[in-house]
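Lab notebook, design round three. We kept the backbone fixed and only want residue identities now. Task for the bench partner: fill in a sequence for the structure below.
Input structure tokens:
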């Protein structure tokens, strides 16, 4: 299992970004480039990832294809098409956006119109349009689940995948965004397992060496691990050589410590006192 995220910090090009990557010790990252990045610069970012055995896990879109302004909505769809083409061309498995909203409170805002039958049909049409125009052969277009936007549950996501009916439409696993009611909040392990059981076969990720398409259901292991059953198969991310020498063999223990702290956080979410929860969250943030 690779631990990763978006590399944070100010950078003006691949060299500065690579230093931030090493500092982050991530083993999977969101793409630091987009469809407007010069090809030579994109290649430099990709080469930096290869040097440190870091997977570019997704190309982000992050816009509102249902923007109330028709011109902005059309531009958002055009950008999504270009980003999906970019993901396909650069060998990134996942291109991710949100479904979109016709509301006026923000590009990712809660709005009662988000759950109407009309919006559901618009989502189907927009996803089909983006995939059909981009014609990806390797990358998959996905929608990040949202607490107040479709898809907001594993069952809704599965039905949406069936209704879109495009082989290059897959699942983006963000179970935290679907913990949007007391039942899921109070029993997160059960819900996490449900997410991986139902959506695991639909998660499209980078294929392991020797496997052709990355659609295997290995992600169930991650669900069991996060739910507190099973042990992690962590591999450490890139690290400064001097720091690595000082750390010695403590890396694996540190990874296990991280996992234990995540599990404790889930337990505190269910029953811990507010002060204890806050102290635990601060300790994770400051580590």
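Proposed sequence:
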């Amino acid at each position: 299992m690779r631990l990763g995220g978006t590399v944070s910090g100010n950078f003006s090009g691949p060299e500065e970004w690579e230093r931030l990557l090493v500092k982050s010790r991530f083993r999977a990252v969101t793409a630091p480039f987009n469809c407007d990045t010069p090809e030579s610069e994109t290649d430099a970012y990709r080469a930096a990832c290869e040097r440190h055995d870091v997977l570019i896990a997704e190309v982000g879109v992050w816009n509102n294809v249902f923007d109330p302004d028709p011109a902005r909505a059309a531009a958002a769809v055009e950008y999504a098409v270009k980003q999906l083409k970019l993901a396909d061309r650069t060998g990134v498995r996942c291109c991710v956006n949100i479904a979109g909203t016709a509301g006026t409170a923000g590009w990712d805002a809660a709005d009662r119109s988000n759950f109407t039958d009309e919006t559901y049909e618009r989502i189907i049409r927009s996803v089909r349009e983006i995939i059909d125009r981009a014609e990806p052969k390797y990358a998959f277009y996905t929608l990040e689940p949202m607490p107040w936007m479709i898809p907001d549950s594993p069952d809704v996501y599965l039905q949406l995948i069936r209704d879109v009916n495009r082989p290059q439409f897959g699942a983006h696993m963000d179970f935290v965004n679907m913990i949007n009611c007391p039942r899921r909040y109070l029993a997160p392990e059960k819900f996490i397992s449900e997410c991986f059981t139902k959506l695991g076969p639909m998660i499209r990720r980078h294929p392991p060496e020797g496997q052709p398409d990355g659609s295997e259901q290995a992600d169930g292991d991650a669900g069991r691990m996060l739910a507190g059953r099973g042990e992690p198969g962590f591999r450490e991310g890139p690290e400064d050589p001097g720091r690595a020498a000082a750390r010695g063999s403590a890396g694996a223990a540190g990874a296990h410590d991280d996992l234990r702290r995540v599990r404790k956080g889930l337990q505190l979410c269910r029953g811990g006192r507010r002060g204890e929860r806050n102290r635990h969250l601060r300790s994770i943030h400051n580590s």
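Keep this in mind before ordering anything: The chain has a mean pLDDT of 82.
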